[in-house]
Amino acid sequence: MSNSPNIGSMQVETAVPLPVARAGRFPAHTLTTGLVSWIGVMPFFIFAVLFLILPTGFLIVGAFQDPQGHFTLENFRELLQPGVLDAYWISVKVSAASALGGAFIGSLLAWAAVQGKLPAWIRPTLMTFSGVASNFAGVPLAFAFICTLGRVGLVTMLLKKYLDFNLYSTGFSVLSFWGLTLTYLYFQIPLMVLIVTPALDGLKREWREACDCLGGTPSQYWRYVALPVLWPSVLGAALLLFANSFGAVATAYALTGSSLNIVTILLYAQIRGDVLHNQNLGYALALGMILVTGLSNGGYIWLRSRAERGRR
């Protein structure tokens, strides 16, 4: 019996022969791989600290200080001035209008590309355009809309020449509330397409087939199956669009200048300096914007996680 192999002891002996495991240390290649991985993400952390965390902490501290650096709450009391409240309200209205319009039109475009019986080349073309247009903003976008819908813009002149319709006789102006909202829709709609398309892809074909087999109509399918699955994604995307437009400054400033009193332009004036220069009030304005956009993004994250659980 002493010469017969002991299978159990062989398993035990081969399970723990490594000195590394008994010593409680990691192999050298594991440490090297982990170090290389951390080095790879270091540029992200450096960028986040320099351009996100430190500036945010700086303006939070500055919002509670006066020009001499003393602690004060006066900056937040000045936020209750009629001009400041009007700026916040106009920004909320522009953001809400562009978010609702972008969510509605973008959802229809995404549905047509994913669920509609369109040619196969439509979807990749739409997605490519959406990826480009969703990042097209700032001065180039403002200039494009002035050249298109300004008083002597291309579309304005074509309507007047061929349809004898003067767009500006209706009270419309590209420098107004609706002009800025329409400009924001240029990048809001493509962004909605990019966000809601994966949610539409998550609708399983078996759900539609089961509804048809049970005698359900298309309206019943959308009412009882598709929309309950999609609404967290759509609503969350609308909140993201709201935050996206609420924080936009370059497009609004290049398009309207100071003719439209929104909070980002007021913040720009306070930081850069004019007759109403109060840098610490600008910090308080920025902190209020952070709270609004933070709540919107928090709602988007919560609804996205809810949508993912629903699809599982």
From TrEMBL:
The cellular location(s) given in this protein's UniProt record come to:
Cell membrane
Domain named ABC transmembrane type-1 is located at: 88-302
Q: Kindly state which keywords UniProt assigns to this record, in alphabetical order.
A: Cell membrane, Membrane, Transmembrane, Transmembrane helix, Transport
Bilayer topology term: Multi-pass membrane protein
**Residues annotated as transmembrane:** 35-64, 85-112, 132-154, 166-187, 224-243, 250-271, 283-303
InterPro entries given for it?
MetI-like (IPR000515), MetI-like_sf (IPR035906)
Q: Does the keyword Signal apply?
A: no
As for family, the record states: Belongs to the binding-protein-dependent transport system permease family. CysTW subfamily.
Identification of the protein by name: ABC transporter permease subunit
